[in-house]
Amino acid sequence: MARSGTSARPALTIVVPALDEAEALPETLRALSEVCGPRDWVVVVVDDGSSDETAKVAEKGGAHVIRHKLPRGYGGALKSGLAAVEGPWAVTFDADGQHDPEGLPDLLAVAVEADADLLVGDRGRGTSSTYRSVGKWVIRALTRVLMPNSVRDLNSGLKLYRTPLAQRYLGLCPDTMAFSDVMTLIFLHRRHRVIEHPVAVRPRQGGRSTVSARTALDTVIEILNIVTLFSPMRIFLPLALLAWGAGFAWGIPIVLVGRGVSVGSMLAIVTGVVLFALGLLAEQLAAIRRRQADDG
């Protein structure tokens, strides 16, 4: 899976973040080798500070290996891998064997034909437990309220990126599991072409998942952060209107009966003014950061 002696850049680079995946990785790399080898595609495994033999297994499987001395998180591993990509396209691929490598040629063909900047692998329904499905639904619903979009599988780990764009926005993304969600939202907000395509999902081949309730909470926080960066008024304006509405609803009846102005209602109205002013300030700061991101 390593490149041959030619100097040509690979058309596609597969970035595989791995943390303690020595058990599942051999089968994943074997399947990737069958697809990538004939096409001279490159597989990059990012060993995120594993305590097992993940790095050795990856090297034995023919992958290019990037090592972290200590775990940086799923997003941190993807950042290292994507930053090292030299070719025009990069796809993120789970190490646990749930993704099917045989679908990669089709994904690349679809993305090229559609002139897409990001292709999201849509895993469909019924691929997660009820607990995780509810969490994904909550995150998707919150995201659509804060940043309207039509992406069904926002946190899919199988995503095909146009490399220069992905590398441009790495600094805006978190090191956590929220990386995939946040990067997709950035592409959507910056008006890049984002499409979805169905992908097959298989049972985990080994090891254990690191996704938990804490992961969902971290994702919600990171989504709020990125919305605050790109569209802060989507957060501050509703809060300001809520405070104003509460203040007037509370204070007007008291004024009408001649009991003066309620301290509580004035506090709510002033809070609304402060929130609105913070929103305006955040919009100005966001504009500066957006220009910095666009300048690379």
What are the main properties of this structure?
296 residues; alpha/beta; Spore Coat Polysaccharide Biosynthesis Protein SpsA, Chain A; 2 domains; seven-stranded mixed sheet; elongated
Q: Architecture of the largest domain in CATH?
A: Alpha-Beta Complex
CA-based shape = elongated
Q: Which structural class matches the secondary elements? A: alpha/beta
Q: CATH homologous superfamily of the largest domain - what is it?
A: Spore Coat Polysaccharide Biosynthesis Protein SpsA, Chain A
Number of strands: 7
Fraction of helical residues: 40-55%
Low-confidence stretches: none
Structurally, the number of domains stands at 2
% residues in beta strands: 5-15%
Output the helix-strand order: EHEHEHEHEHEHHEHHH
What profile does the largest beta sheet have? 7 strands, mixed
Describe the fold and architecture.
This protein has helices at residues 25-36, 54-60, 74-83, 104-114, 130-146, 163-168, 179-189, 213-230, 233-256, 263-294, and strands at 12-18, 42-48, 64-68, 89-92, 118-122, 159-162, 194-198. By secondary structure, it is an alpha/beta fold. The chain has two domains: 12-229, Spore Coat Polysaccharide Biosynthesis Protein SpsA, Chain A (Alpha-Beta Complex), CATH 3.90.550.10; 233-294. A seven-stranded mixed sheet has the order 3-2-1-4-6-5-7, with helices on both faces. The longest helix has 32 residues, at 263-294. The chain is elongated, with a radius of gyration of 23 Å.
